[in-house]
Every structure is written in C-alpha cells, then in structure tokens.
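Fold this sequence, please.
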Amino acid sequence: DELATLERNTDGLKKISSPFPRLHYKEAVEIILKENPNFIVGDDFGAPDETIISSQFEKPVFVHHYPSAIKAFYMKEDPQEPGSSMSCDLLATEGYGEIIGGGQREDSLEKLLARIDEHKLNRADFEWFLDLRKYGTFQHSGFGLGIERTVSWICGIQHVRESIPFPRLYGRLSP
C-alpha cells in the first residue's frame, strides 16, 4: 500500500463517505467568528479560516454561495439571492484547505461586461472570452481541482510544495 509506505495514517480518510456536509457562506462565517472574531464578514477565506471550518467535520465540506464580490467575474450571481454567487468550494479535512472550486458561469454578455467593469479589469484582455458569448450561449458550470493540494491531503504531505513535480522556489522560477 503506497500510503503505508508514506507512513500516512489513513484512519481519517477511511471515515469519509458521501454525502458531504454543505454550508452556506454565512454558516461558515459563523463557525470562523467563534474562533476568530476579527474575521471580516464578506471577505474570502484564508488558509487559517478554511482550517477552522474543516476542523468541525470528519469529511470534506462544501461551502457555497460566496459573496459575488470576492469571486471571479465570470461566476453567475444567484438570482434568488442577489450578492451571492452560484459557486462552491470543497474543503478537505485536516486543514488542507480548498481542493476543488467551482460554480455556474455567467451566460449573459451584458452581465459579464458589467462584472468585468466592477472588478476594474481591462475588457480588451477578455475579448476572446467575450466573443464566445457574443452570439449566445447556454447555461454551464465549471470547476478546478487543485491536484497538488489533493495529493498532499491524500498522502498526508505537510507542505504542498512537496507534491509539485517542479516547484517554483526562490532562485528557481521555471521548471
């Protein structure tokens, strides 16, 4: 067993089963505020905040409906909950943080342009992206999997740098 070779204690991993708990951003903030009263409601979570949340569960936890202001411009706002994005992050156990982030993408060209402006981004940098929506599009979603973080979590590696085949280090910025 590869994890035994790495001396990974798999007791926690063996407890994991679906379904995973789901927390609204507001519920996650309540958990954080109990341990960190200085957390600013509306901010994104940092690694210490994600650790506080995940420490409450024995399996990964989904956090959904983050404020639109802290998510990428292409994340769709929930029409039933203005100000909240239709997004979620999956936080791993044991303080490993976000391993998956995803959400529904905005399909309205007008709303995308407004969001680019809200984020003070240069429209010209996104012409190729906007062209994809210019003649209409359909509802769609996407996600990103942090493979190095996931490998770190599964293998019990303490620093993500040790899961990256060619890490960028001081004095070494390219593979």
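The helical segments are 2-5, 11-14, 25-35, 47-54, 109-118, 127-134, 147-155. Residues 2-105+139-156 form a domain with the BirA Bifunctional Protein; domain 2 fold (CATH 3.30.930.10).
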